[in-house]
Amino acid sequence: MKILTGTYGFLLLLILLPTLVFSAETVEPKEPLPLPGVIEIIPRLALLNQKAAAVQNQFGALTETESFAKPLALASLVQEKLSQGITQFETDGWSFDRLLAGHEHVAEQKKDLAELLDAVSARLVELDGLRQSWQEQQVFWAQWSQTAPPGLLEDQKEAFAKAANTIASILEQIAESGKPLVSLQNSVIQLQEHNQLSWTKIDEMLQVMRGETFEKTEKSFTSPDFYRQFNRDLLIEAQKNLRQVVPLGQDFLRQKGHVAALQLLLAAGLAWFIIFKRGKVRVSEEWRFIVLHPLATGVFVAVAVLSPLYGAPPGQLRLLLVGLAAFSSAILVSGLLKSRCKILMVYLMAALLVISTALQIIALPVPLYRLYLTLLCVGGIPFLLILAARFRRSLGKSDGFVLALRLGAIILSLAFLAQFGGFNNLSSRLFESSNKTVFLGLFATMGIRLGRGGLDYLFGQPFFRRQSFFSRFGDELLAQLKKILRLTFMGYATLYLLVIWSWGVFESTGEAWTTFMQTGITLGETRVTAYMVLLAAVAFYATIQFSWLLRALLDSEFFPRSAIDRGIRDSIKKLLHYSVVLIGLIFALSLLGVTPQNFVVLAGAFGIGIGFGLQNIVNNFVSGLILLFERPIKVGDMVMIDGEWALVRKIGLRSTTIETFDLSEIIVPNSDLISQKVINWTLSSEQSRVVVPVGVAYGSDVPLVLTILKECADRHPKVLDTPAPSIIFTAFGNSSLDFELRVWVADINMRLAVKSDLLLTIDEQFRLATVEIPFPQQDLHLRSIDSTLLASVTSGRKAPNV
User: Fold this and answer.
1) Domain ends where: 568, 603, 638?
2) Which of 33, 41, 62, 639 is 20 to 30 A from 693, alpha carbon to alpha carbon?
3) How far apart are CA 617 and CA 609, in angstroms?
4) Are residues 694 and 676 in the same domain?
5) 697 φ, ψ to 5°?
6) pLDDT of 744-773, one tens digit each?
7) Is the domain of 49 the same as that of 105?
8) C-alpha angle 148-152-153 in degrees, rounded to nearest 5
9) How many alpha carbons lie under 13 Å from residue 434 in its C-beta half-sphere?
10) For the segment 111-150, what is each residue's pLDDT rounded down to a tens digit?
11) Whole domain around residue 454: which residue ranges?
């Protein structure tokens, strides 16, 4: 009864909730409560003094500004360096890569300033809350004092005065405490303004350089002005830029030193773990290259996983991270490759990536950097073409590596032509993007292999192998996880590829992701974005996987412990699958902005579709539900359809799959199984009757024949005693006396084997008892014949023509 009352109360609350909310929104403010009596003046003063003491304790934490002094000083220093860098950029100019690095520094500084401002503002908000609370106390005590009846005691009058003084003191302290915080807030806001100016300037220059990608920005090689740039001033500029590389300062080490320590620990720990375990466990093929290079594996994982925690690292650290990532991945990739040519190319690409990054960090003067790219193109084009030709001759055909070498030669040729004509930005970005793309592919490959190897190692542990669920469905679950892992890495690699080849349009994967996710179309009053589509697809996929997980848990944990018929198990799993998928579909459509009204429209459209051409599909679907509920047939039943014996293998949403004795599969629409006659030999019982027809010659001993047939049936071990075997004398045949031996077997699958055994035994016993099994006989009776024909036959002459 209590449960019913609670349930109805909950439903009533749900029904009245909108009304209550609406009433709460429209009700007018209540009148203030009546003031207390004079007898409560002294107790309430004591309570007020307690609150004042508590507030005094809070002031220490709220007004403390020393914790903000150090972050503010550091932010001021960083902002000063950024402003100096912007000023220097306006006079000397930066490379595109250096601009992007500066943009990242400004973005990180913006984030730090926002966090600092939020912390200061939180203090001010808390102080403002205290101020409002004590102002309410001030109004309360003032009204109480004014409306107090005459004739108060001196102690009571003094209590009103003490309360007013206490409240005024607290409010004064709150006002004084907020001044340093407000000053601190103004300082942070000023830094944010300077940061925004830096952001705007760098962004403007990035936009200018993006627009100059396909424009001629430098002198061509045919111009004498190009060669005049190579003078002493160029070397002085190179030395100046080298000295201006931001070093690893103490401030950065104090802020991010723990990240470097974590990287060292992770690299060393992972390398030690691989060395310790490689001789004790069986290594999968996915991890064999890891076992060969444990230190490179540790370095690669540490750099790939923890480097994003640096944010925008200084140039020296960025060069170190790029070098470690490039050469560690090259070492790992070499463990997967057998061709020396491929291994050589991987190491060359790693070296070029590190050298190019170093030249960009030191801001090598443009003429020298152009010369570097030109020499690289002039030497790389014939090298790649010769290597591709030799590799093709050794294989006898072209493969992906040969095509990649030729593509690299084409890109270098385009970069050389662009440099020759003075299109420096286009040439630089072609080369840099191609190099980064190669290593992006290597990093993605390493990540996928490391992840797949980790999953193999995890699922191979004894703990998982002992679980019934993992022993039965572990391989399928492992395959699904590997597929998700691959999609995740490929998706991130695609985003990073957009960043690489957008040439500054997207500065990070987060920006590319946000831009792509906000892309969409407007359908009526609803805007469908790529984010909504992706979210709906993920939700629907998760629903399908959740349905599979539920069915797998039923098969592995619940069904084995319960005596549930196999057909009922299949019906439960099918209905559960359809229900979960339907819920997932509705949820996915709701994520796409489909409202309940839209569902009604969709249902109407679906009804019209049924009326025009989907009758058969809906008929089969409904028939499938009937098969699941009524269960006239179930998986594993032996049926006969159109004279064909078959075994039911699968009852699907639209059709049922049956398998014949020659292992051919027949797809039967579910509506045919409902509307037509189907013989089910195993619907209620697996037992089946076997009929063995037997014929003996006329004149045989019938009682002996009946005895032999009875003994043959009784001796067979698979013939059931109940129902008992029976022998029927069925007819006087044309050539024999016809009998039928009728026996029962426990399993219909034994019918043919038992019948064959009985026929062999009957033949043997008939031979021993000299009971003859006749051949088919036919008598020909000649009642009359022509005399001339008879004379011709008897004399041997040729018969005359008749």
Assistant:
1) 603
2) 639
3) 11
4) no
5) -70, 150
6) 998 888 888 999 999 999 999 999 888 888
7) yes
8) 150
9) 21
10) 888 888 888 888 888 888 888 888 888 888 888 888 777 7
11) 239-459
Write the DSSP symbol of residue 135.
H
The most confident of 179-188, 252-261, 372-381, 650-659, by mean pLDDT: 372-381
**Which is it for strands 665-669 and 644-651: parallel, antiparallel or unpaired?**
unpaired
- Shared domain for 734 and 643, answered yes or no, is no
Residues 6+ positions from 416 with CB-CB distance below 8 Å = 374, 377, 378, 381, 427
**Are 353 and 433 part of one and the same domain?**
yes
Tell me which of 603, 632, 661 is where a domain ends: 603
Q: What is the mean pLDDT of residues 30-38?
A: 61
Overall number of domains in the chain: 5
The position carrying tokens 């030999």 is: 681
> Does residue 397 lie in a domain region?
yes
Same domain, 647 and 707: no
DSSP 588: H
Average pLDDT, integer, range 573-593: 84
Residue 294 pLDDT: 87
The answer on pLDDT for 12 being more than 50 is no
Buried b (16+ CB within 10 A) or exposed e, 310-324: bbebbbebbbbbbbb
Helix (H, G, I), strand (E, B) or coil at 378: helix
Both 303 and 427 in one domain: the answer is yes
552-555 long-range Cβ contacts below 8 angstroms, 24+ apart: 552/469, 552/472, 552/473, 552/476, 552/477, 553/469, 555/472, 555/473
Neighbour count for residue 96 (Cβ, 10 Å): 20
* Pair (711, 757) in one structural domain: yes
Question: In angstroms, rounded to a whole number, what is the distance separating the alpha carbons of residues 668 and 648?
Answer: 10
Name the residue type at position 319. Answer: L
Q: Which two tokens stand for residue 139?
A: 């109004």
Where residue 232 falls (left for φ over 0; alpha for ψ -120 to 50; beta otherwise) is alpha
Is residue 792 assigned to a domain? no
Q: How confident is the model at residue 3 (pLDDT cuts 50, 70, 90)?
A: very low
- Written as one string, the DSSP assignment of 154-172 is HHHHHHHHHHHHHHHHHHH
Q: Give the Cα separation of 774 and 598 in Å (integer).
A: 79
Contact 433, 501 (CB under 8 A): yes
Q: In the numeric block, which tokens belong to residue 378?
A: 């002039």
| pLDDT at site 25 | 39
Reported as a pLDDT band with limits 50, 70 and 90, residue 479 is confident
The answer to whether residue 33 is domain-embedded is: no
- Report, in angstroms and rounded to the nearest whole number, the Rg of the chain calculated over CA atoms: 45
What is the amino acid identity at position 538?
A: V
Looking at residue 160, its pLDDT comes to 80
Burial 338-368 (b: 16+ CB within 10 A, else e): eeeebbebbeebbebbbebbbbbbbbbbbbb
* Better pLDDT: 569 or 731: 731
Per-residue DSSP letter, 336: T
Q: Calculate mean pLDDT across residues 669-680.
A: 85
With beta carbons less than 8 A apart as the criterion, state whether 736 and 742 touch: no
Closest Cα to residue 380, out of 434, 439, 322, 326? Answer: 434
CATH number at residue 734: 3.30.70.100
pLDDT over 50 at 4, yes or no: no
> Is 429 domain-assigned?
yes
Interatomic CA distance for residues 335 and 445, integer angstroms: 13
Same-domain status, 661 and 701: no
CB 691 within 8 A of CB 675: no
Q: Model-level pTM?
A: 0.58
Residue 432 neighbours by CB under 8 Å, 6+ apart = 97, 356
- The answer for residues whose C-beta is within 8 angstroms of residue 238's C-beta and 6 or more apart is 362, 364, 365, 368
Q: Model confidence over 231-263: pLDDT tens digits?
A: 888 888 778 777 766 666 676 777 788 888 999
